[in-house]
Specification:
The chain is built from 13 helices and 15 strands. It is an alpha/beta fold and 378 residues long. Strands 6-5-7-8-12-13-4-14 form an eight-stranded mixed sheet, with helices on both faces.
């Protein structure tokens, strides 16, 4: 598929995205460019040196450089972006689900659906491995390529910090024959979509991505300062899981063998990456399957949005094998999700306009004027 895109050099990416405060630390530029490096202490991308290229993949694939939503929709789904898809995106099916595997339930987040779907995809030879985020002994998150159930379980659970996990995809051999799955936040899913739609000469590992699972996201914590905060407050080697319960709770919970300790969200909001305020995608719209929490009313369940035929086939395999159980999502819960997703997009547009000073300048986001106007007026 041939598309028009603006391709600039690495120095433009640094100036336009990293230095300007738009970087979400997705990892899409790391591993391709030898002059970019993740500073784990600061949780930022560091420029080691300037390259001599006039254009590069790093700029092209970044989710915070010019991103034409219509092009992505046509490339992934074969249809343009329209008013009915604002916020929640394309939906072939939507329901509540949870794993039937006790081990996955114990280690996974909410209903353990992501790990279960990845394991199903491996068993069915849809993928050979999955690019995920794995926490180290001190709970620092980073990218990891899981190739079996044991390794998938090592990646189960949410760190709530940025991980830069797409670096793993970029560092793989371009001639790999491994069929890959990718799990990521909406910004990472958008980056993978750009990798697939804007093919590179000679190919990349992204050409072998056969499954993309997106995670619902409102925001994430900046890795450096937030992790330092956690280290000062807890013995992270003893932490089993992190959780942010939904309303009426208003806490960040740390689970250990000794029990659960809670921090008020108001105490740690200052560690949220400011760049998240310019992201309007709550439900990872460009994934094959998007997965979020079942919220407080359905604790221990996941909300699952199936978007592509690949997603439909995978969910059918998991259901047929008895690996997940499902129930219908109530109309009220679905309407709440649609409203929340729309409002996140609306807030992002408002924040972008405040940043640029013009309703006609939506920074990196390229959407049709009538949709932008609906969001600004809705």
């Amino acid at each position: 598929m041939e598309v028009d895109t603006v391709i600039k050099a690495q120095r433009h990416l640094y100036n336009d995205v990293i230095a300007s405060g738009l970087c979400v630390l997705c990892g899409a530029c790391i591993g391709q460019c030898p002059y970019f490096h993740v500073n784990s202490l600061r949780g930022t991308v560091q420029l080691l040196d300037l390259c001599e290229l006039e254009k590069g993949r790093c700029y092209e694939r970044c989710p915070r450089t010019i991103t034409d939503i219509d092009v992505l929709y046509k490339g992934i789904f074969g249809v343009p972006y329209d008013e009915n898809k604002i916020g929640i995106g394309i939906v072939k099916d939507i329901f509540l689900a949870r794993s039937t595997d006790p081990e996955i339930i114990k280690k996974g987040q909410d209903g353990g659906v992501v790990t279960t779907l990845l394991w199903t995809a491996m068993e069915e030879e849809i993928i050979d491995g999955a690019v995920e985020t794995k926490m180290s002994g001190d709970k620092s998150p980073s990218g990891f390529l899981a190739r079996n159930k044991e390794e998938l379980l090592q990646c189960a659970g949410n760190s709530y910090e940025q991980s830069g996990s797409l670096e793993i995809l970029n560092r793989m051999q371009t001639d790999t024959h491994e069929k890959l799955g990718v799990v990521g936040l909406p910004c990472q899913v958008m980056a993978v979509s750009k990798m697939k739609i804007y093919p590179a000469k000679g190919g990349t590992a992204a050409d072998n991505v056969k499954l993309v699972i997106g995670l619902f996201c409102g925001w994430s914590f900046s890795a450096g300062e937030f992790h330092k905060f956690l280290q000062e407050k807890f013995d992270l080697s003893k932490v089993l899981k992190f959780d942010i319960p939904h309303h009426p709770a208003h806490t960040f919970d740390v689970l250990t063998k000794e029990g659960r300790k809670s921090i008020e969200l108001d105490e740690i909001r200052k560690y949220i990456n400011p760049a998240c305020s310019y992201c309007g995608d709550m439900t990872a719209q460009f994934a094959d399957v998007s997965v979020g929490s079942g919220r407080a009313k359905f604790k221990g369940w996941n909300t699952v949005v199936v978007r592509t035929e690949t997603g439909v086939a995978l969910l059918e395999k998991a259901k047929t094998k008895g690996l997940i159980e499902i129930q219908q999502i109530p109309d009220a819960s679905l309407e709440h999700l649609k409203k929340a997703a729309f409002n996140k997009m609306k807030r992002a547009i408002e924040n972008i306009v405040m940043r640029t000073g013009s309703k006609c300048d939506l920074s990196y986001l390229k959407i049709r004027p009538e949709i932008a106007q609906e969001l600004q007026n809705g």
